[in-house]
Amino acid sequence: MPWPKRFWYASTGPAPMSDPEIPEADRLNGALHPRHTPALLGQSAAEETFLQAFNAGRVHHAWLISGPAGVGKATLSWRIARFLLATPVAQADGLLGDPKPIATLDIPAEHPVARRVIALSEPRLFLLRRPWDDKAKRLKQDITVDEARKLKGFFALSAAEGGRRVVIIDTANQMNIAAANAVLKLLEEPPENTTLLLISDQPSALLPTIRSRCRTLHCVPLGSDDLAFALAAQDPEADSPSAAVAALAGGSVGAAVSLVMQDGVDLYRRLVTLIQTVPKLNRPDSIALADWAAARGAEGRLDMTLNLIHLFLARLARSGVVGPPAIEAAEGEAALFARLCPAAGAARAWAELHQVLGAEARHGRAVNLDPSALILDMILKINGTATDLASRERHVSQ
Known about the structure:
Elements: H1 44-55, E1 62-66, H2 73-86, H3 89-92, H4 112-118, E2 125-128, E3 132-133, E4 138-139, H5 145-158, E5 165-170, H6 177-188, E6 194-200, H7 208-212, E7 215-218, H8 224-234, H9 243-249, H10 253-261, H11 264-275, H12 283-293, H13 299-322, H14 333-340, H15 344-366, H16 371-397
Parallel strand pairs: 1-6, 1-7, 2-5, 5-6
Antiparallel strand pairs: 3-4
Helix pairs in contact: 5-6, 9-10, 11-13, 12-16, 13-15, 13-16, 15-16
């Protein structure tokens, strides 16, 4: 299936990057960058909350845009940024009379601000995100303090422009501690007419002092209709998402795009077929899956495999509490869930494993552990938990 042409990394800081071969840290591979996304679906409540504050003259200096990954947090942030930069400060201050309340964040596509934002050339906008590591030839794992310190130069240069200034931090929980502290100082003493938009799918990972200085806008998972419309906006020629894609995406456009681009549904089916062999795990197939997912040059495949293992365990644990999923994402999934997680006790065991393996995966990716060994270890631990639960059930039945 065809997908839009890639958009590449450029910096809004004092020294723009021009290398077209450097990917953007805040764009999902194969999808439009949020600043290019033409419409935001499913987040009308968050938009309305912001507009109510704006129309009442109470725009907070910092907003935490939270919610699950891929549901439109960044798209909402770029919409807010364009809107603020295109709207005169005097309008919000009531210096232009008593204007009619603004009902939408939309601004015309031909507006100069909209054009400059698309080109990342708007001098009153700063985008803080993970930088490129020239030595390692990859994006850094964190937003570094050196990137955060560029804000000082931005405010010095943009002061001459007048009007509003906007800072987008994507993703805020990727800041290392030094960068977070630099941003905290900014939140404590914000420059005049400045709005900071912090995007985060893990707000609990932020410093409590950062969270306390932000007003929260929460984005929710999309319904099936909105998900289909959002995918069509990414690519008008794309088919409607399958039931399996919708089930696995969980209302996330980003997840749906990844599933389609990387044959995630087929991989999930392969994973389910393998786990159907536990507690007598098919080890040769486990090794083959681990080696395939960890093949050199297939980093997207590795991330997809890790994400699907994480998702499988979440769906499995949930089934022991609320019953089987309404839609199977793979043939035999419901029967497998019923066998491995028949009650709340088993659900707790799978939920604990879900947390443990999630932490191990994050650590393993951060320190560059052998990816094949990482995946194989996760599969073996799933088999071990299945073995323990089966033994416990036999003991109870005797």
